[in-house]
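Handoff note, outgoing to incoming analyst
You'll be picking up this chain. Sequence as last confirmed:
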Amino acid sequence: MSRLSRCQNIADLRVLAKRRLPRGIFEYVDRGTEDEVALRNNRAAIERVKLKPRMLVDVSKRTTDTTLFGKPLAMPLAIAPTGSAGLVWYEGELELARAAATAGVPFTLATGSMTSIEKIAQEAGGRLWFQQYVWADPELAFALIKRVENAGFEALIVTVDNAVGANREYNRRNGFSQPYRITPRSMFDMMLHPEWLGGTLFRYLAASGMPRFQNHPPGMQGKITSDPTRRRAMRSDALCWDDIKRIRDRWPRTLMIKGLMCVEDAELAVAHGADAIVVSNHGGRNVDSVMASFDVLPEIAAAVGDQATIIVDSGVRRGSDIVKAVALGAKAVLVGRATLYGTAVAGEAGAAHSLALLRDELDRTLALTGCRSIAEVTPSLLAHPTRARSRERMLA
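Most recent structure output, in case you need it:
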């Protein structure tokens, strides 16, 4: 029996990913920030949501299909931007993008990826989104937007919740900071994981040398071990709503703002031309005392869900989580770690297995709750009346 066939859920894939990856890389993917309160709370918030199923409904012709931004989706899910995909597997972004295309869901390429925008556009297929961080020189940001547009990506996600770097102490202990430091400890760690060493790092070294940030501006596309001045060139702590307006003026397609956690910011996003809002606490990786995304989702959906598409991330591990998100007001979820675990285990095949597991669980949850389609997932499915009422106010 193959490794993948033994994996019955995302948690099983996580176990295998932990075995295959060096500790520094696995913890970079898997962990949160500081005391990891937010990381745990994300899952706790999802688990607190309970469903109230209906019985004796003919669900024999059910479907997980839906639409997002007027285009069909195989399920209400898209791949979140994860800059570490290229570290868990050789050209992991491309492997993940191909799996997403086959599964019929969008893939988001991160600014910090190690596979170029152009290569993804030429070789991945499917629906492609791009996640952007904003640089100190606005012309660099605008040039990146034009590059994404020219490559044919359909949507731009601007991440706004990283004003300064997060306090991820474990990264510093593992030497997994920016720039990445090769130390005796990290070298020993790599040697303990020969499958990753040979299949990922050595392949990069043989093909083009140490992995580079291929989507950074010219002159800043340094190796992961290069000088950190390129990080300081990012304008995270100066980003404001005027920047969003300028991006909106230059980007002609779908624009999403990712990292909003309150109604006031969601309303400002709509006022500045956002087509979609990603309710997100960055997977519990930035502010450790922040609320869970699923806890603020209903309020934001009630306030602006009739004006913008609402998407949510942070903590999705099961198909039933997707049903809960839709019932709470989201049109779709973003998944990051769940598909990274699969990619780390077996590249494209592993990512495809992750997506297949989530879709199968989603299908089962629909059947067992009496829903024949995503459209039938409504607040009435929730066992929490207060959550349901906030969503119903939006639909009224």
